[in-house]
Amino acid sequence: MTRRRFVFLAGSIIPALLVAVPLLLGVRTAAQSLPSRLSDQEFWKLVTDLSEPDGTFRSDNLLSNEVWLQYVIPELLKTAKTGRVYMGVGPEQNFTYITAVKPSMAFIVDIRRGNLDLHLVYKALFEMSADRADFVSRLFSRKRPAGLTDRSTAEEMFAAFASVEKSEALYTENLKAIQNHLAGKHGFALSDIDRAGIEYVYNAFSTFGPQIQYASTGAGFIGGGRQPTYSDLMTATDGDDVSRSFLASEANFQFLKELESKNLLVPVVGNFAGPRAIRAVGKYLKDKGATVSAFYLSNVEMYLMQDGLMGTFCRNVATLPLDETSSFIRSARGGRYGQGFGLNSELGRMAAEVESCGASRR
Hints:
- By secondary structure, the chain is an alpha/beta fold.
- The chain is built from 15 helices and 6 strands.
- The termini are far apart.
- Mean pLDDT is 89; it is low at 1-32.
């Protein structure tokens, strides 16, 4: 009986394989369609081709003011699939979400070119820094304290840097290294505006150090109340007291360093309700057979609602490749964390919300 069964399978295995191999190849092609690395030319072409003209916002937004942003991560991880595509807006909070969902590629879409310049500074610093302590030293132009290792906690690291003064020599040296790394090593065609923006960003971080906060520069800031510092955000935890910031562990930092080194974190200038950026990202991802795992919105929807542009934004999102697990991460005043203080993070199902606004995802 065993022999007859084997003969039967042997007789049918060839046609079965003829059917199965293309299917397997199709699955493999889709899974590997996102690039494992972008050349410098490919990266800069994406930045340029996907972007819209520079826009404005009321502040320079160099730093998040969302102290509770990690609280939503455990819920997000119940559905988010790794190896997909992350999208977001704004500064460093994206890094914490990226290290949580572990995408193969990321796009940061922000209305201001200043945010692109900020992410170029971060890109250079991630690539030039060997570890977290080296990164923090370069970011704030402060000499690295002795005794920090790859096992140091974020609390230990920022406590060690708290009493270190800014070094003008390090500032000058590092700013030159950042500019040379981007324009020289990578060959990015930085405009005079980009160079000025990069200097502005780096000067702010060096001036205020780990105590920098959303309102530190005062550039167009309107509002009040307590604002978390960089140190606060990096040493914060989720609701279970688990530290999830991108500087909480060496593994988190190294994940981002590798993503940046492969040119797979792409900053884009774009209005959420604009005619090009989100749609162009969507086309690129569909052509690659990719799917969006998460899209961090901050509180941009509030401004879209004020301007009557939510419908346009929804139709833009409808062009992205989504499935039932694709999640919005949005920020709202009040909410379930922090006793109503500050911005809280909430999740939304992207595909369902797109359907509810009447947009087609074809």
